[in-house]
Each structure stands twice: as C-alpha cells, then as structure tokens.
Amino acid sequence: MNVEITDLTRRLGRTQAVAGVTLAAGPGVVGLLGPNGAGKTSLLRMLATVLPPSSGRIRLLGLDPGDHRERRRIRRRLGYLPQHLGYYPGFTVVEFVEYFALLKEMPAAAVPRAVAAAVERVGLGGQARAKLRTLSGGMLRRVGIAQAIVNEPDLILLDEPTAGLDPEQRVSFRALLRDLGGTGTVIVSTHLVEDVGAACTDVALLRQGKLVFRGTPGELTARGEGTDAAGDAPLERGYSAVLASAVQAGTDPAQARP
Ligand SMILES: Nc1ncnc2c1ncn2[C@@H]1O[C@H](COP(=O)(O)OP(=O)(O)OP(=O)(O)O)[C@@H](O)[C@H]1O
Q1: How far apart are CA 30 and CA 199, in angstroms?
Q2: Taking the model in full, what pTM does it have?
Q3: pLDDT(35) > 50
Q4: Residue 166, CA distances (Å) to 3, 105, 172 in order
Q5: Of 255, 256, 257, 253, nearest to 38 (Cα)?
Q6: What interhelical angle do 137-149 and 111-121 show, nearest 10?
C-alpha cells in the first residue's frame, strides 16, 4: 500500500477538519469527494506532508512522514497540486516546472527532458516559453499539474485539478489520470462526480471530516439505486444517497453532541 492512514485527525482553529479517517490505497486513482468543508483539502495537505496531523498514524510509500529523513525521501517521490498554487508571473512555463523539479531534488541532468515531457503531457508544448502572466486560468491549472508529475511520482495528490479546465481539456486530463494510476497512487479531490466515473478506480467520500463511503464508482452508483436521492446521473444519486444516510446514521458531529 502506498498510503496507509489510521484514525487520522486534524483540528484547525475550532473546527475538527479531519475527524478520525482510516484509509489505505495502492496503485490506482482514488476520487476524493465531499461537500464544501468536508475536509478534503486538509486530508490532502497531511498526505502531502505540509500539514502535520493532530493525532493518528500516516505511512506513505512505506515511510514515516513524521521522521525528517524519511519525509525528505517521500517528497522526492511525491507530486502535489494544492488547491491554490502560487506562481511567479514572470516565469515561463518551463522555468516554473524546472523550479519544482529542482525542489524535488531531481538530478540536474535529468531535469530538461523531464520538464519537456511533463509540459507535453498536459498539452502545453506550444506554450512552453510563454510567461505565466499571459496564460488563462485553465492553462495555469495545467502548469500546476505539470509540476506535480515532473518527477514521475509514485504518489500524486491533486486538489481540484479540473477546476477551470474546459470540457476538451477535462477529457484529456482524465486520460492522463488513468495513465498515472496505472503505475502509482493518485488521490484526486473533485466536485465533479463525472470525473470520478470517468477516471477513478476507487472513491472515498468525506463528510464533516469523516469517511462515509469507500468503494468503487460502481458501488457508489449502487447506493443510489431504488432511492429518491437527488442527482442527474446514477453516480450523483449514489453520492447524494450516501450523504443522506450519513446524516441519518448520526455521523454529523454537530448532531452527535448531547
Ligand atoms: N486555517 C483554518 N482555520 C480554521 N478552520 C479551517 C482552516 N482551514 C480549513 N478550516 C475548516 O476546516 C474544515 C475543512 O476544510 P477543507 O478546506 O479541508 O474542506 P474541503 O473539503 O477541501 O472544502 P472545499 O470543497 O470547500 O474545498 C472546514 O470547516 C473549514 O472551514
């Protein structure tokens, strides 16, 4: 298993952003779903080794991110697209991706070819020398994906990668996801349930910091069958049905309080 987390929690201010999540993932693409504020970003940040947990256990690629030396080894094999990726507007696409390749301690001799391949893979070969300030929001998102995959990571964490991508780009991005999941573990947070149906081998659904569903997209779809759950597509109805039954089961921390 590339990801093994046990009873993971994280408090942020007065909010229990992640409230006891246990999850394991091997090669494949896990779609991380959940309503606004469910804890997806907080969970991804802990997996990306940028946010320490309040409690619980994490092992990534068989290593302990709490140990300084092991964390460094994890980071070399990790790709992370944060929800909001800062950038230097004067950098070109290639300069930006190169910068991340060097931060990930890739051997300098391997960098130019790896950068060119990553930029090509996200469909930005024609903009390689363009300055970031001249790119559209969707193109910037693709530059973000390129920096995440430049080191051919074994663990890839993508926080809403399809936000801002046009339909054509979303289709080619899903193909890239399937490709990446063939060798490594990809965890991708999204609000687009159709991304999950098209590209994910597994689904994890969070609600109020808790894991309320873990299974395949087919199993999530099945949860909506025969119900009057809201949704325009079978997978969306499964998503709504799981959330509705989570409320009834009292997984709502606000409701669980005496
Ligand atoms: N720095 C912070 N300080 C206090 N509370 C925070 C902080 N960051 C996040 N939270 C809270 O933690 C909870 C989980 O937030 P998180 O961003 O992980 O959810 P999310 O599922 O990614 O949401 P979205 O779909 O809106 O991006 C939310 O209630 C949020 O308000």
Answers
A1: 9
A2: 0.93
A3: yes
A4: 31, 33, 10
A5: 253
A6: 140
Q: How far is the CA of 42 from the centre of ligand 1 (A)?
A: 7
**Sole residue written with tokens 């300069």:** 95
Among 82, 86, 24, 21, CA closest to 51: 82
- CA-nearest residue for atom 16, ligand 1, is 39
Average pLDDT, integer, range 202-222: 96
Mean local confidence (pLDDT), 234-245: 93
Q: How confident is the model at residue 138 (pLDDT cuts 50, 70, 90)?
A: confident
Burial of 130 (0-12, 13-18, 19+ CB in 10 A): middle
Which residues line the pocket of ligand 1, CB cutoff 6 A? 12-13, 15, 17, 34, 36-42
Mutating to test ligand 1, I would choose from 8, 11, 15 the residue with most ligand atoms within 8 A of its C-beta, which is 15
Mutate to test the pocket of ligand 1, among 42, 47, 190, 207 (most ligand atoms within 8 A of CB): 42
pLDDT at 258 over 50: no
pLDDT at site 252: 53
- What is the average per-residue pLDDT within 123-135? 95
For ligand 1, atom 6, which residue shows the shortest CA distance?
12
